[in-house]
UniProtKB/TrEMBL annotation:
Disordered: annotated span: 28-49
UniProt keywords, alphabetically: Membrane, Signal, Transmembrane, Transmembrane helix, Transport
Positions with biased composition (Polar residues): 40-49
Transmembrane segments: 81-100, 112-133, 153-174, 227-247, 280-297, 309-327, 339-356, 368-387, 436-458, 478-498, 505-524
Residue ranges of every copy of the Sodium/calcium exchanger membrane region domain listed in the record: 91-244, 378-522
Lineage: Eukaryota, Sar, Alveolata, Dinophyceae, Suessiales
Topology versus the membrane: Multi-pass membrane protein
PANTHER family: MITOCHONDRIAL SODIUM_CALCIUM EXCHANGER PROTEIN (PTHR12266:SF0), NA+/CA2+ K+ INDEPENDENT EXCHANGER (PTHR12266)
UniProt signal peptide: 1-18
Protein name as annotated: CCX1 protein
Localization per record: Membrane
GO cellular component, one term: membrane
MF GO annotations: monoatomic cation transmembrane transporter activity
Domain of life where this protein originates: Eukaryota
Length: 533
């Protein structure tokens, strides 16, 4: 997977090649042999060329509306290069997947562990708060931007299905591999190598998910959502969090380590030992990405030294610039109004304050909790940006191949929104946070169902001042999706309960359930097309 870094150079070269061959030249070159024909035929040729150009421009505009991207013009690349661009797109997807994986493991999990230990939170509560809210941010944004309540519900239900099946299967496989590694190394305490799960915790999570699904099924049966019904959904999530606090747990809360020793170098920045040219080349290719991410995301590993001080001081301004780039605001936004000027000054003062109020360690400064909060927020923003880029890449290919909007919203969009759940779940298992990962598998869908969809419907009802119709006869059955989610949640509970007995059967079973679900989505699309709706 590391060789995927070469895709960056290949993709950039492909873009340069594509831009030099514009739409007009490609169209006129096809008609070059026709120059000696009659003037009337030449006029028809020009008109035909202009029509083809207008169609090509319209296609690119439609593609960019479906798959917007700030980093690479995937629509122009695919349109100009055709099927030859697909291998380059695949390599770029590998790079983005690597960015997601390393960002989750190196940057997203440490702030979670720090604040869980600082607040003495149990792993389950940490998974239902920090992890679920962070991973649920992309889904919530997509729901708020959906053109209708039906589209929002379809995306959230398909996203819940993807989290339970795909992310759940990945977490089960990660725990299985961790246990197998412990067997190979003959560790004396295998339970410590693979953290056991609290059965009461995930049964409680599954019960609340069943309650949320039952409430959603009742709303779909009535097909109308009022202000009170929408308000009930976020309140249910608050009650779920309260049940986690009241649930007895004999395990001690997460505690900060006492004896850390000297500060190690930040991951990705230390030059590998001499002698391995391939490893040195890969390090040189990956080094800029690590520098960029450490500038955006302050270190949260309990250590403090001069590099950590410098990166933490640069982070407030870097996060502001990253937001300006992500939302295409430009540097002029910083001086557009008194409010934007105030935001810019706050970022600059925060950067100066972090540097001046700290030294080169080893003791962490008083502002360290604030920098870890910034790390948590900026890691979510970066994961969201990478997931958005990956989703745009896949949506462009799907649009080029003629896949419908319904299939995109049911497959590619949930995949992009659920990538954070997958990579963070695997990263937490690797760092002995399996309980938090297992809780997040249920808390994430609960957050998306009750908070994301609930707030979305609440805003629509407040805006319209009346009840909202959430399903009609022509729309694919959302109730069938709720039923599939119930099956997936039940299978995940059984997988956790009989994890050791099933082995690799459980991850394969979870992924198989999702494949059956995808086949059902495609069949529903085919039925709609055949019926002419």
């Amino acid at each position: 997977m590391r060789w995927g870094f070469l895709a960056v150079l290949l993709a950039k070269g492909a873009l340069g090649y594509a831009e030099t061959h514009t739409l007009r030249s490609s169209v006129l070159d096809k008609d070059a042999p026709e120059k000696r024909r009659s003037p009337s035929h030449s006029l028809q040729t020009v008109q035909s060329s202009e029509a083809e150009m207008s169609q090509a421009v319209a296609w690119r505009l439609d593609c960019r509306a479906v798959a917007p991207s700030d980093l690479i013009d995937y629509c122009g690349m695919v349109q100009n290069m055709g099927y030859a661009s697909l291998p380059l797109v695949f390599l770029w997807v590998v790079v983005l997947m690597w960015l997601l994986n390393t960002t989750a493991e190196v940057y997203f999990v440490p702030p979670l562990v720090y604040w869980s230990s600082l607040l003495s939170l149990r792993p389950g509560i940490a998974g239902a708060t920090f992890v679920a809210i962070g991973n649920g941010a992309p889904d919530s944004v997509m729901m708020f931007l959906a053109p209708s309540v039906q589209d929002a519900l379809d995306m959230v239900l398909c996203g819940v299905m993807c989290i339970l099946c795909v992310a759940g299967g990945c977490v089960l496989l990660a725990r299985l591999r961790l246990r197998a590694r412990a067997d190979r190394t003959q560790l004396s305490d295998k339970e410590e190598a693979c953290e056991p799960l609290d059965r009461r915790a995930y049964i409680n999570n599954a019960a609340w998910l069943a309650l949320a699904l039952g409430y959603m099924l009742w709303l779909l049966t009535t097909r109308r959502v009022t202000l009170g019904r929408a308000l009930m959904m976020p309140l249910m999530y608050v009650c779920y969090l309260a049940s986690l606090f009241l649930l007895p747990d004999s395990r001690p809360p997460l505690m900060a380590p006492s004896d850390l020793g000297p500060a190690p170098p930040l991951p990705g920045l230390q030059k590998p030992p001499k002698g391995d040219i391939g490893q040195l080349v890969l390090w040189a290719l990956a080094w800029p990405t690590y520098v960029l991410r450490w500038t955006l995301i302050p270190p949260s590993d309990y250590f403090w030294d001069r590099p950590r001080r410098i990166f933490s001081s640069l982070s407030p301004v870097a996060v502001l610039l990253f937001c300006l780039w992500s939302y295409d605001l430009g540097l002029r936004w910083c001086v557009q109004s008194p409010a934007t000027i105030a935001v810019t000054l706050v970022a600059a003062l925060a950067a100066a304050g972090i540097f001046l109020s700290s030294d080169d360690g080893p003791k962490v400064p008083a502002v360290y909790p604030a920098t870890t909060l910034l790390a948590k927020a900026s890691s979510v923003l970066f994961l969201l940006a990478v997931a958005k880029e990956l989703t745009s890449c896949c949506k462009t290919v799907a649009f080029y191949l003629g896949v419908s909007r319904f299939v995109l919203e049911s497959t590619v969009v949930p995949w992009g929104n659920s990538l954070g759940d997958i990579v963070t779940g695997i990263a937490m298992v690797r760092q002995a946070q399996s309980q938090a990962a297992a809780t997040a598998l249920f808390a994430g869908p609960l957050f998306n169902l009750l908070v994301g969809a609930g707030v979305s419907m609440l805003l629509v009802t407040v805006q319209r001042g009346d009840a909202v119709v959430i399903a009609d006869e022509s729309y694919p059955s959302l109730m069938m999706q709720v039923g599939c989610i119930a099956v997936a949640a039940s299978a995940l509970v059984l997988a956790f309960a009989f994890e050791k007995e099933g082995g690799t059967l459980w991850p394969v079973a979870m992924w198989s359930i999702y494949m059956v679900f995808i086949v059902g989505v495609v069949m529903a699309e085919v039925d709609l097309r055949l019926s002419g709706q």
